[in-house]
Design a protein that fits this description.
heterodimer, A: 255 residues, mainly alpha, 0% strand, globular, B: 2 strands
Chain lengths: 255, 262
C-alpha cells in the first residue's frame, strides 16, 4: 500500500503546486454547482412538488451526489479516463512500475475542479440539509458508498475499451451516470427506472444514499452496500481480465 | 474578401465532412443528447402532469418539444470550446492560423460550425422523433419549421459568443474555467433548462436583454408551437453584434500576441 499512498501524496502535491489555479478551479466548480441549486429552487418554486420530491429533498440529493462524485472525479480522477488511457496506450508507463496497475492509475491524478464538488457538497449539506450527528453520519456513509458504486461503474465501462478498442462507451457511461444521478429518480418509471438501479446505477450514487439520510431502513442500507460491493468487484475483475489482453499503442505520456 | 470567404466555406465544408465520417463519435454525441434531453423533458412533463397539465403556459407536449430543441441547439457544440480556443491562444497555436490570408476568428467559427452541422442535424432528427414518441405531435408545424433556421442561428450566435469570451486568453492566458460559467449562463439565462416564462419576472426581463436567449430559448420557443418570427430577427441582430465582438477581440488580441519558441 505504501507506493500507492506515496503516489496519491504526489498527485495531491502536484494539484496543490499551483495554488492560485487550484483555488480558481475549485471556486469555478462551486459556482457551477450553485447554478444547479438556483435551478432547483426556481423549478420547485414554480411547481411545488414532483413525484414526492421537493426543494429540501433535492438539495440533499445534490449534496450527496456532488460529495460522492467529487471524491471519485476529484481525488481518483483517472477513474473517468480509464478507457482513454487504454486506447491511447497510456497504460504502458504504469505497467513498467512495481505496483498494482489499477490502484496506481486511480490515485495518480487529482483534479482540483472536482475537489470543488466535494467542498460544495459538504457546504450544501451543512447549510441546507438540517445536519444532526445522526444525519451527518448517514450522509458520510451514503456519499462514501455512492462513491464506491460510481468508481466501480466508471472502471467497469472504461475497461470495456480492452475489448472494443474504443473509449466512447466509457465516455457515454460517465456522462449518463452523472447526469441521471443529478435528478430525482422517481420522475422515471418502468424500464428507465429499473435501468437506474442496474446497468447505469445512478440511483445508488445519489437517490438511495439521500433517502438513507432522511429515512434509514435496513433494506436500503443493505442494498446500497451490496451494490457497492458488486460494482467494485465487477470493475476489478473486468479490468484484470482485460489487462491480460492489453496491447500498447505506445503513447507514454498520459498515464 | 473572396479569398477569405472561400477559406471559410472550405473550412466549414471540410470539417463537416470529417465529422460526418466518424459515425461512432457522432452516435455517442447524439446518444448523450438523447439522454440529457429525455431526462430534463421527463422532469418538466411530469411537473406539467402533476400540476393540471401545464406549467408557465406550456402544456406537457409543448414542454417536450421545447426541451428537445433547446438541448439540440446547445449540445451540438463542443461544451468546452472556450477552453480549447483559449488553450490555442495561450499556447501560441493560434499563430499558425494567422499565417492564412483570412480572418482567424472567421475561420475558426466556420470550422466549428461545420463540425456542428452533422451533430445538429442528427440531434434535431432524433430529438423530433423522441419528442413525438414521448410527448406527442407538435402543436404547430409552422413553429416547428421556423425552429429549423433558428437552430442554425442559435449555433452561430453561441459560437461567436464563445470565441469572443475565449479571446480573453490573449490577455489573461488562462480562460479555462470560463466555459463552466458560460455554460451555466446558457442553462439559466438562455432558458435551456427552464423556459423563460417560468423564471421570476425580474430574471425573465434580465434574460431578455442578454444574448443567451438566442442560443436555446429561440429555437425551443418556436418548436414548442409558438409562431413568433421576430425571434429569428432577434437572433440575426445578436449574431451581428456577437460576430463583431469576436472579430474585435481577436483583432486586438492578435496585435499583442507574442509567441515564444516554435
Amino acid at each position: 500500500m505504501r507506493p500507492i499512498a506515496a503516489t496519491m501524496r504526489a498527485a495531491v502535491a502536484e494539484a496543490w503546486a499551483n495554488r492560485s489555479a487550484f483555488w480558481t478551479q475549485l471556486a469555478a466548480m462551486a459556482l457551477n454547482d450553485l447554478v444547479w441549486v438556483v435551478f432547483w429552487v426556481l423549478f420547485f418554486g414554480k411547481v411545488g412538488t414532483v413525484a414526492g420530491w421537493d426543494r429540501t429533498r433535492v438539495l440533499l440529493l445534490l449534496a450527496t451526489v456532488t460529495t460522492g462524485a467529487g471524491i471519485v472525479l476529484g481525488l481518483l480522477s483517472n477513474a473517468r479516463r480509464i478507457g482513454q488511457l487504454l486506447v491511447d496506450g497510456g497504460l504502458d508507463a504504469a505497467l513498467a512500475l512495481p505496483v498494482r496497475t489499477l490502484p496506481y492509475l486511480l490515485v495518480r491524478r487529482v483534479d482540483a475542479v472536482n475537489v470543488g464538488d466535494v467542498v460544495f457538497g459538504i457546504g450544501l449539506f451543512f447549510v441546507a440539509c438540517h445536519p444532526t450527528p445522526e444525519r451527518t453520519a448517514l450522509y458520510v456513509l451514503g456519499a462514501t458508498a455512492g462513491a464506491l458504486v460510481l468508481i466501480g461503474f466508471l472502471v467497469l465501462v472504461g475497461s470495456l475499451s480492452f475489448f472494443t478498442g474504443r473509449s466512447e462507451a466509457g465516455d457515454l457511461g460517465f456522462q449518463a451516470v452523472i447526469l441521471l444521478a443529478s435528478y430525482p429518480v422517481d420522475i422515471f418509471s418502468g424500464a428507465t427506472k429499473a435501468l437506474l438501479y442496474t446497468a447505469i446505477p445512478a440511483a445508488f450514487v445519489s437517490a438511495v444514499p439521500a433517502r438513507l439520510v432522511d429515512h434509514l431502513t435496513v433494506s436500503d442500507l443493505a442494498t446500497l452496500l451490496s451494490a457497492a460491493v458488486v460494482f467494485v468487484t465487477l470493475a476489478a475483475t473486468t479490468f484484470a481480465i482485460g489487462l491480460r489482453r492489453y496491447t500498447s499503442n505506445a503513447l507514454w505520456t498520459r498515464a | 474578401m473572396t479569398v477569405a470567404k472561400s477559406w471559410a466555406s472550405v473550412a466549414a465544408v471540410s470539417s463537416a465532412r470529417r465529422a460526418g465520417r466518424d459515425p461512432i463519435a457522432l452516435a455517442v454525441s447524439v446518444g448523450f443528447f438523447a439522454i440529457v434531453a429525455s431526462v430534463i423533458a421527463t422532469l418538466w412533463r411530469t411537473a406539467a402532469h402533476v400540476h393540471g397539465g401545464s406549467v408557465a403556459g406550456y402544456t406537457a407536449v409543448q414542454l417536450t418539444w421545447y426541451l428537445y430543441f433547446a438541448e439540440a441547439a446547445v449540445t451540438a457544440l463542443n461544451p468546452r470550446q472556450i477552453e480549447l480556443t483559449g488553450d490555442d491562444i495561450a499556447t501560441g497555436a493560434v499563430a499558425v492560423d494567422m499565417l492564412r490570408p483570412a480572418s482567424v476568428v472567421g475561420l475558426r467559427i466556420a470550422t466549428e460550425f461545420g463540425r456542428c452541422v452533422p451533430r445538429l442535424t442528427a440531434s434535431a432528427v432524433v430529438g423530433s422523433g423522441l419528442a413525438l414518441i414521448t410527448g406527442g405531435a407538435p402543436t404547430d408545424s409552422v413553429g416547428l419549421l421556423l425552429a429549423l433556421p433558428s437552430l442554425v442561428l442559435a449555433v452561430l450566435c453561441n459560437l461567436a459568443a464563445q470565441h469572443a469570451v475565449a479571446g480573453a486568453a490573449f490577455w489573461v492566458r488562462d480562460a479555462r474555467s470560463a466555459w463552466f460559467l458560460y455554460q451555466k449562463l446558457i442553462f439559466l439565462l438562455g432558458a435551456m433548462l427552464i423556459p423563460l416564462e417560468a423564471l421570476p419576472h425580474w430574471l425573465h426581463r434580465t434574460a431578455e436583454l442578454l444574448p443567451f436567449v438566442t442560443m436555446a430559448y429561440a429555437p425551443a420557443r418556436l418548436a414548442s408551437g409558438h409562431v413568433e418570427p421576430p425571434l429569428l430577427l432577434l437572433q440575426l441582430g445578436w449574431l451581428v453584434v456577437l460576430v463583431a465582438a469576436a472579430v474585435a477581440v481577436f483583432g486586438a488580441g492578435e496585435r499583442r500576441l507574442q509567441v515564444v519558441g516554435g
